[in-house]
Structure formats: C-alpha cells, structure tokens
C-alpha cells in the first residue's frame, strides 16, 4: 500500500529518520552520516509518500524498487525500512556488526527491503535501469527509485546507464541526484567539477525537476509529478541539499562524510534533531 | 586421419541461445555492439523483444543484467572475453556475484583464438580472474557440440556463469548425442598410462597428443574439464591415480600459452597432490 502522509507528517518522519541515522552510526562507531542526512527527505518521501511496498512481502513482484546507488548512505534506507516495519527498529543497533543484516553497505541477500546490493559507486543506476526495463518487458506498473550522489556522478557508468534509460524510454525510472556539493577529499568543485548536472541529465533525455532537496514540500511535489508523468522519458529530480543536514556541526562539513559522532556530539545531535519536530 | 569438421564454439552459443530464448521468454540477450561477432544476430532477428543492444558500454551492461536478474529475467551478456571479464570485472564482483544473481556472461574471443586481432583482443587473464570471484561458475567448452550443450546447462543452472567461447574454428569432437554436465569432466578417450586434463581449445590438442602417444606405445586418457570452477575437490574416482583410484599412473595437463591462472593451475594440481603421482606441465604438442 502506498502510504501518503501529509507534508507535516513527512517532515516529522524525516526528523525521526535522521535521529535513527545519527544514533545507529554512533552505536556502530563508524558510518557515513553526512550523505545519509542530506538524502533523508528523498528517502522519507519515497517510503512514506511514493512507494508501494509491502513489509510483509519484501519480494512482491509488483513492488516499487529502491536502489541506493550511493550505497554508503544506507543508514538512511535502513532507518526507513525499520520505520516501515521490514524489521524491528532495535535491529538498527546492529549496524556494521558482524553477522548483522545491516552491513556497512547494503546487501540484498541479508536485508529485507534491499532490492540490490550496492557500495561500489556508479553501479547502482545501471541496476535500476535493468529493473525498470524488466518492468516494461513484463508490463508491470512499478516504479524504480534510485539515489545517486553528485560525487558519484563522476563515474562514467552513471552516464552509460543514463543513455540506456533514454534509449528504452524508461519513464518508470526516477533518479534522485543528491547535490550536496561535498565528497571525501573536498568539495565536488575542487575534486572534479560536475558542471550543471541538471543540464547534463536533461541532455541525456531525462525530464529534470530541480528543487531544494531538503524541502519536503518541493520533494513531494517533484516526486508526485515524476510518478504521474508517463511520457516515455526517464525522470531526474536534482535536489540541492546540505550534507549533514539537521545537525549544526555536521552541515556542510567535509569531515563528516564518513565519521561517527562521539558521545557528546551524539547527544548534541539528538537534542538538535528533537527540536526539529513540527507541532 | 578422418576428415574433421571445424566450427567455432561461438557458433554453438549463437544457435543454443535462440532455442533457449524461444522456449523461455525470460531469457534475454544484452549485446554490447558485438552481436555479429558474438553470434547473437539470429537471436536479435528471431526474438527482438528479448534483445537489447546496450552499445559500447560493458560496465553498464553488467549492471543492467543484474537489475533484470533481480526481476526474474535470465540475461546473457554477450561481448568479448577481454571486456566481459576485465572491463566489467568489478561490476561482476559487486552486482552479479556478491548478490549471486542469475546472470550469464557469454564471451567470444577467449584465449589466443582471436589470433589475428592482436594482443589487445587475445584474452589470457580472464579465466584466472573469473575463477577467483565467489559464486562464479567458469566454463569453456571444447567444441561446437559441447558449447551448445553447456550453454543450455548454464541457462538451467541458477547463478552467475562465465562462458568462454572461441572466435576461431575448432575441430568438432563430439557427436550430437553426447551429454555434458556442469562441473563434471567429460571422458574423451580412455587410457591407462597417463591422463591428460584439458579445457576449451586445448582439448583437441590433447586428443592429438594422445594419438601420438599411442603410436609410441603409451596409452593416454583425455579428460575435457570444461568447467574450470567449481571443481570437485577430487576428481571422480575412476579418474584418480594412485592406490585408491583406478585411473592412470600419471596425470598430465597440456601447457597452455595462458597457463597461469587458468585450468593448468588448478585441476590436475589438486588431484596430483592428493593422489601422490608425478605431475608434469607439458608444452603444447
């Protein structure tokens, strides 16, 4: 069932998701908070507004698919899956532990609700294209959602996949590009400038919606449009986001790409997030 | 010697895949602009709805295949061995073998067979690379007939398979009724003094060598070890040497020009170590 919460409800879900992200990475002692926080609105909107999934039947053939191409930010997806009921919320405490279903990068054979294993950047989008192509072949009406990082867009395979999505008219594919402007070694402009990614996806034949990716209202509007417009063109939502969004000391800070908070930082982050619930 | 029919193993793939695609609509072919060379043109003509040409973009083809496989399709990615093993290597590792998806890599131009194309297209590393990746099954048929049979066996097997074919024609060794089983060596000819274990385009060389040996009074058994991986830890009892086996006294593996990392480094070695017989690497006949 598609669970279409209101924007306010989604904003609050998103705060809870962020708290789970910070909490599980703190407990794991390692992980990637920055990107997990920047992509939070997209993940929340997908699972609580857009996607038709069944926690009791994760392999349901007609479900909408989610591909976390930037696999290192899986804590955001794990949190959404737990909140949806794919597995108990307590399981989030096992992130990155040996034997856990919640591996450091997502594993489809271990974790219910993960549609493809990812982790090596640039590869997920091609898999999403394959899923969307299968949907077309079988006449199934599902959508495939893929989250791609702006740093990740430096990988050539992303553009090979974009070509393919265009060639086969995959209007059941919705790509979210998380334009947080940072990657491990610095800003994307310093490391390898992407130029105008929205224009690039447009040139590759996508319908592009450029939004503030941390604004839930804009996110819901763009995803709704992307879902409903079936015009033979793949969809791309380019979301300008803030890496580390929601936690003051993590925002726009390169150092929080792949660092876990210490106890004091964890406490401060949780307090800051707690104050963000909308009444 | 009687007249020998010559045919490339890639032709066997091209014929088998059409039959498979007709029988099972979930079988799809992903080409990388090498359909003519990889012999998928007949498939494209016969089953256009199950055929996708993804252009000169092999990495993407591997990923698309993985995505299709998660939705119940059985994709065969057709390209050359150099690209199907090394260009897509990490995509095979991450998106196909790690999730253990039902993707087949059907690669022509394996080994030294595209001789006239030069070193860029001669693929001597692929078997070694592919066999190190967990969950991968690695197969190289010895002739046209076994290629057809093993492609069908690979389609019936659930999991990733790397199939390697030759560009150049090879002698047709087997009758159409010959049966082949993935993972099980095929006895090409029996002998009691030595056994030669060969794979792919070296099997016919082993057969020739056995004939030569016979002239010199040495009885040689030839095994077609078409499945490089997974190998049984032990050779079937009837092929083992030493006290417990009933096999020949010595095991030989024809030295391939691509020996390191390929079959040569594997099958006979384990068998020899476990069954205490002398083992020699031989130069090509």
Write the layout of secondary structure elements.
The complex is a heterodimer of chains A (279) and B (285).
Chain A: H1 7-28, H2 33-38, H3 40-50, E1 65-68, H4 74-84, H5 124-138, E2 144-149, H6 156-167, E3 173-179, E4 182-183, E5 186-187, H7 188-191, H8 197-203, E6 207-212, H9 216-228, E7 235-240, H10 263-274
Parallel strand pairs in A: 1-2, 2-3, 3-7, 6-7
Antiparallel strand pairs in A: 4-5
Chain B: E1 6-7, H1 9-23, E2 27-31, H2 35-38, H3 41-46, E3 51-53, H4 58-70, E4 74-80, H5 81-87, H6 89-97, E5 104-108, H7 126-131, E6 137-139, H8 144-156, E7 161-164, E8 170-171, E9 186-189, E10 194-198, H9 203-215, E11 220-224, E12 227-229, E13 250-254, H10 267-274, E14 279-282
Parallel strand pairs in B: 2-3, 2-4, 4-5, 5-7, 6-7, 10-11, 10-13, 13-14
Antiparallel strand pairs in B: 1-8, 6-12, 9-11
Could you characterize what this model shows?
In chain A, the strands form 2 sheets. Chain A has a 5-stranded parallel beta sheet with strand order 1-2-3-7-6, with helices on both faces. Chain A has about 280 residues and is an alpha/beta fold. Chain A starts with 6 loop residues before the first helix and ends in a 5-residue tail after the last helix. Chain A has a single domain (about 5-275), classed as Thiamin diphosphate (ThDP)-binding fold, Pyr/PP domains (Rossmann fold, 3-Layer(aba) Sandwich), CATH 3.40.50.970. The model of chain A has no long low-confidence stretch (mean pLDDT about 95). In chain A, α1 packs antiparallel against α10 (about 265-275) and α3 (about 40-50) packs parallel to α4 (about 75-85). In chain A, α6 links the parallel β2 (about 145-150) and β3. Chain A has helices at about 5-30, 35-40, 40-50, 75-85, 125-140, 155-165, 190, 195-205, 215-230, 265-275; strands at about 65-70, 145-150, 175-180, 180-185, 185, 205-210, 235-240. Chain B is of the alpha/beta class. Chain B folds into 2 domains: about 5-170, Rossmann fold (3-Layer(aba) Sandwich), CATH 3.40.50; about 185-280, 3-Layer(aba) Sandwich (Rossmann fold), CATH 3.40.50. Helices cover about 35% and strands about 20% of the residues of chain B. Chain B is built from 10 helices and 14 strands. Chain B has helices at about 10-25, 35-40, 40-45, 60-70, 80-85, 90-95, 125-130, 145-155, 205-215, 265-275, and strands at about 5, 25-30, 50-55, 75-80, 105-110, 135-140, 160-165, 170, 185-190, 195-200, 220-225, 225-230, 250-255, 280. A 7-stranded mixed beta sheet of chain B has the order 3-2-4-5-7-6-12, with helices on both faces. In chain B, α1 (about 10-25) packs parallel to α8 (about 145-155) and α4 (about 60-70) runs parallel beside α6 (about 90-95). Residues about 255-265 and about 270-280 of chain B have low confidence and may be disordered. The interface of A and B includes residues 128, 133 and 163 of A.
């Amino acid at each position: 069932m598609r669970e279409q919460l209101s924007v306010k409800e989604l904003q609050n879900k998103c705060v809870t998701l962020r708290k789970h992200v910070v909490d599980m990475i703190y407990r794991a002692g390692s992980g990637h908070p920055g990107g997990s926080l920047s992509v939070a609105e997209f993940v929340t909107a997908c699972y609580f507004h857009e996607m038709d999934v069944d926690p009791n039947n994760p392999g349901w053939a007609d479900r909408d698919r989610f591909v976390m191409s930037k696999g290192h930010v899986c804590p955001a997806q794990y949190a959404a899956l737990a909140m949806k009921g794919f597995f108990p919320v307590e399981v989030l405490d096992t992130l990155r532990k040996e034997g856990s279903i919640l591996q450091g990068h997502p594993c489809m054979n271990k974790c219910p609700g993960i549609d493809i294993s990812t982790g090596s950047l640039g590869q997920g989008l091609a898999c999403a294209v394959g899923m969307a192509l299968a949907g077309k072949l079988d006449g199934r009406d599902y959508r495939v959602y893929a989250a791609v990082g702006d740093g990740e867009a430096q990988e050539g395979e992303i553009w090979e996949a974009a070509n393919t999505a265009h060639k086969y008219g995959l209007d059941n594919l919705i790509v979210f590009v998380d334009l947080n402007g940072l990657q491990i070694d610095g800003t994307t402009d310093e490391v390898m400038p992407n130029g105008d990614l929205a224009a690039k996806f447009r040139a590759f034949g996508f319908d592009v919606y450029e939004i503030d990716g941390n604004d839930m209202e804009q996110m819901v509007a763009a995803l709704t449009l992307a879902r409903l417009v079936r015009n033979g063109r793949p969809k791309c939502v380019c979301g300008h986001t803030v890496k580390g969004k929601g936690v003051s000391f993590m925002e726009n800070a390169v150092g929080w790409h792949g660092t876990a908070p210490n106890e004091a930082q964890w406490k401060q982050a949780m307090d800051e997030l707690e104050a963000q619930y909308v009444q | 010697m009687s007249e020998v029919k010559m045919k490339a193993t890639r032709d066997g793939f091209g014929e088998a895949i059409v039959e498979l695609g007709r029988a099972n609509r979930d079988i799809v072919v992903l080409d990388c602009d090498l359909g003519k060379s990889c012999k998928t043109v007949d498939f494209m003509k016969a089953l256009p709805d199950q055929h996708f040409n993804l252009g000169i973009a092999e990495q993407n083809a591997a990923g698309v295949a993985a995505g299709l496989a998660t939705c119940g399709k059985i994709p065969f990615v057709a390209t050359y061995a150099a690209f199907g093993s090394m260009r897509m290597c990490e995509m095979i590792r991450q998106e196909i073998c790690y999730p253990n998806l039902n993707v087949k890599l059907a690669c022509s131009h394996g080994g030294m067979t595209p001789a006239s194309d030069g070193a860029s297209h001669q693929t001597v590393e692929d078997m070694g690379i592919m066999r190190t990746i967990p969950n991968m099954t690695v197969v190289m048929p010895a002739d046209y007939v076994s290629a057809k049979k093993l492609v069908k066996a690979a389609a019936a097997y659930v999991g990733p398979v790397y199939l390697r074919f030759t560009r150049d024609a090879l002698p047709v060794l087997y009758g159409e009724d010959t049966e082949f089983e993935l993972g099980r060596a095929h006895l090409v000819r029996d002998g009691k003094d030595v056994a030669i274990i060969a794979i792919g385009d070296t099997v016919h060389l082993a057969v020739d060598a056995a004939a030569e040996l016979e002239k010199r009074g040495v009885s040689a058994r030839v095994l077609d070890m078409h499945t490089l991986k997974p190998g049984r830890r032990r050779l079937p009892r009837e092929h083992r040497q030493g006290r417990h086996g009933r096999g020949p006294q010595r095991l030989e593996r024809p030295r391939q020009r691509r020996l390191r990392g390929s079959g040569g480094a594997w099958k006979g070695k384990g068998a020899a170590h476990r069954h205490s017989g002398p083992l020699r690497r031989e130069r090509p006949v």
